[in-house]
Design goal:
Chain B: Required for the export of heme to the periplasm for the biogenesis of c-type cytochromes. Chain B: One of its GO terms (molecular function) is heme transmembrane transporter activity. The complex is a heterodimer of chains A (about 220) and B (about 250). With about 220 residues, chain A is mainly α. Chain A has one domain. Chain A is about 85% helix and about 0% strand. The longest helix of chain A has 30 residues. With about 250 residues, chain B is mostly helical. Chain B has one domain. The longest helix of chain B is centred in the first third of the chain and has 33 residues. The chains are: A mainly alpha (about 220), B mainly alpha (about 250). The interface between A and B is medium-sized, with 21 and 21 residues.
């Protein structure tokens, strides 16, 4: 487990030394969410209705923004090959990198979402569910995205291809995540959506680092 | 016993499968045309008009087989891709690559005929129903597989990366299949079930089964044709290809 925490700490430190990259994704989230009321019109009932979808879709896109960098620089300077050669299991190191990606890319979205939800006239309980659904959903986005990032590593037109591969796989997360918030604001039960989201997360925590590792080994061949 | 095993694996090499595929392709084309002609005849002239949906229901004779094929081909593609990844067999990876465009075509056909059916029946070209959405995701997965394979120059790496993507996407197939049961949405439930009598006229069922067989044969025929082309392209440096081309 030491290797896991060491990789995570390293990635977080590296990112914090170059803050602009982290902040880009966060500001992208804030700005795009704020564009919707301007584009659609400030009707409070309508904004309340579209809020879950807008916040969730923007969270998907903001996550996508940071994904190509997940492995690219380590691949370029050879760090990734050293990781593959190291005695600690590669899947553990990759899990550390994915966790770091979530801490830098996902967690800020979870923390910012309630403030942005206020712009859409959501009440306190709905804001709570929004945060909870994002807390369960954003790690899932990082895990699925890491598989896509590993598959497209060093490939021509990797960035566009990454979006093409990853966005379809994000759809279940989007449906259950936004569905939970919608159910809450409609006064229905949210447990079903959140349970499915948690089940998907459990599945991804188990399989995604392994699949990512397999894809990276192919890229390193 | 020993002989049998050797014979079985003989066709795992492109060199020996190439002539076999060449002999099989005309057979599957003939079967596809026969089943297709019979199926179209039954579905247009024999099958009765539907009590609720009138003549418009006849689009199911294309829509349902195409939807089945889109799912079956994905499973077959993932199976061959997985086999290629696990055993490093060249031919199975080529098979996966050959199946993908036909699968994408079937998914597109299923969505398109569904839209033609939906406009008169539901009054909308498209609704965000669970089955439609998951079929759309399946189409995107095919496109992603094809795009990923064509973006990577080294064929071995392309095969392996594609295989991982195909295996990740397999989770979607049961979701499509069970979506009409799990979510109670607009798309109608299945009319054909193995455990109880079909809830449609027998001639309709026959038309559907004949069309499904025609689609099977067509898919096998075109996939084998594409497979032969892929074999020639990838093995172009070998001696047998030079002989085969003469």
């Amino acid at each position: 487990m030491n290797a896991f925490f060491a990789t995570m700490r390293r990635d977080v430190l590296l990112a914090l030394r170059r803050k602009s990259e982290v902040l880009t994704a966060v500001f992208f989230f804030v700005i795009v969410v704020s564009l919707f009321p301007l584009g659609i019109g400030p009707e409070p009932a309508l904004l309340k209705k579209i809020a879950p979808g807008v916040l969730w879709v923007t969270a998907l896109l903001a996550t996508l923004l940071g994904l190509p960098r997940l492995f690219a620089s380590d691949h370029l300077d050879g760090t990734l090959e050293q990781m593959a050669l190291s005695p600690s299991p590669l899947a553990l190191l990759i899990a550390g990198k994915i966790t770091a990606h979530w801490l830098l890319c996902g967690l800020p979205l979870v923390l910012l979402a309630p403030a942005l939800g206020l712009q859409f006239d959501l009440d306190v309980r709905t804001l709570g569910i929004l945060s909870l659904s994002l807390l369960l959903g954003t790690p899932l986005l990082s895990l699925i995205g890491a598989m896509g990032a590993a598959l497209t590593l060093g490939v021509r037109g990797g960035g566009v291809l990454l979006a093409l591969l990853v966005l379809p796989l994000y759809i279940p997360t989007l449906i259950f995540g936004a569905g939970a918030v919608e159910a809450q604001s409609a006064g229905l039960g949210v447990e079903g959506h959140l349970s499915l989201l948690a089940a998907l997360l459990a599945l991804a925590v188990f399989f995604a680092p392994w699949a990512t590792t397999a894809a990276l080994r192919i890229a390193l061949e | 016993m020993n002989m049998k095993i050797i014979n079985w694996f003989r066709f795992a090499s492109p060199q020996s499968f190439y002539p076999l595929a060449g002999r099989l392709i005309p057979l599957f084309w003939v079967l596809a045309l026969l089943f297709g002609a019979a199926g179209l005849w039954v579905s247009f002239f024999v099958a009765p008009t539907d009590a609720q949906q009138g003549e418009g229901y006849r689009i199911i004779f294309v829509h349902v087989p195409a939807s089945w094929m889109s799912m079956i081909i994905y499973l077959a593609m993932a199976f061959w891709a997985g086999l290629g990844l696990a055993l490093n067999t060249r031919l199975s990876s080529m098979m996966a690559q050959a199946l993908a465009p036909t699968g994408a075509l079937m998914a597109a056909l299923s969505l398109w005929t569904g839209a033609f059916w939906g406009k008169p029946m539901w009054g909308a070209w498209w609704v965000w129903d669970a089955r439609l959405t998951s079929e759309l995701i399946l189409f995107f997965l095919y496109i992603g597989f094809i795009a990923l394979q064509s973006a990577i120059d080294d064929p071995r790496r392309a095969d392996k990366a594609g295989a991982i993507l195909a295996l990740i996407g397999v989770v979607n197939v049961p979701i499509i299949y069970f979506s009409v049961k799990w979510w109670n949405t607009l798309h109608q439930g299945s009319s054909i079930n193995l455990t109880r009598a079909p809830s449609m006229a027998h001639t309709m069922l026959w038309g559907l089964l004949l069309m499904a067989l025609a689609f099977w044969m067509y898919s096998i025929a075109v996939s084998l044709m594409r497979l032969r082309a892929i074999m020639l392209e990838r093995e172009r440096h070998t001696e047998w290809v030079k002989h085969a081309m003469e």
